[in-house]
Amino acid sequence: MAAPVADNTAGTPQQTRRPSAHDLEVLSRQLGRPVRDVVEIPARCVCGNPLVAATAPRLSTGTPFPTTFYLTHPVITSAVSRLEAAGLMNDMNDRLADDESLAAAYRGAHDAYLAARKEIGQRAGTGDVPEIDGVSAGGMPTRVKCLHVLVGQSLAAGPGVNPLGDEALEAIKEWWTKDRCYCDGAWDTTGEAPSKDLSRHGPQGLPELVGRPAPVRRSAADEASASNLGEDQ
Ligand SMILES: [Zn+2]
């Protein structure tokens, strides 16, 4: 059982962030698809299984990739999907428009996202990725378009960084809390992991391989046009 970093966080200590072969297999099983370019496991279940995968800001294919924190645990992703289906994002967007202190804290979450991505890129050796300068994910800094992104950041960074991610975590506590393991039966553990089945198809980036579409954008200008299409996580 992994020791918690601090109270009320599932964040992973730096020395255990590097994904093991077992972590990558678990991620593939959680997502039902192979993963590529996962460079860190920034949050773990109390049992040690990954909750969030961190993807390098530039994929091995060379493609810039802004969505650094990807929620992978099926129990959490489906709980967050319930919140989305219930309309929580509309409520959050209304409040962002009315509440300047919330809006400022949310802009801070955007800045923290970019800073964390830069650090992850440095540790992963991908260097600067100018194509996605200033582009975070999930609708930040002014909108909420994907709660999974915000929850992924909150789990990775700990409480107090993304106020709306923290709020979403609080709202799913009847289905998931950081203190308990919900892994048993949450994904198929029999047979070969998806990465083994599909690796012959060659390197592919995470965005094409996960259930929820993730943006792969060549520039901030593309982000600006794509953001109108509601295609974030
Ligand atoms: Zn677990």
Question: How many domains make up the 3D coordinates?
Answer: 1
Helical stretch tally:
8
What helical percentage do the residues reach? 25-40%
The biggest beta sheet is recorded as:
3 strands, antiparallel
Give the integer mean of the pLDDT values: 83
Category by helix and strand content? mainly alpha
SSE succession: HEEEHHHHHHH
Number of separate strands: 3
| Bound chemical compounds | zinc ion
Can you walk through the features of this model?
There is one protein chain. The chain has 233 residues and is mainly alpha-helical. The protein has one domain (14-227). The chain contains 8 helices and 3 strands. The chain has helices at 21-31, 74-85, 88-98, 100-124, 147-157, 163-171, 194-198, 220-226, and strands at 38-44, 50-55, 69-71. A 3-stranded antiparallel beta sheet has the order 1-2-3, with helices on both faces. A hairpin with a 5-residue loop joins strand 1 (38-44) and strand 2. Helix 3 (88-98) crosses helix 4 and helix 5 packs across helix 6 (163-171). The longest helix is centred in the middle third of the chain and has 25 residues, at 100-124. The two termini are 30 Å apart. Bound molecules: zinc ion. Zinc ion is lined by residues 45, 47, 49, 181, 183. Zinc ion binds next to loops.
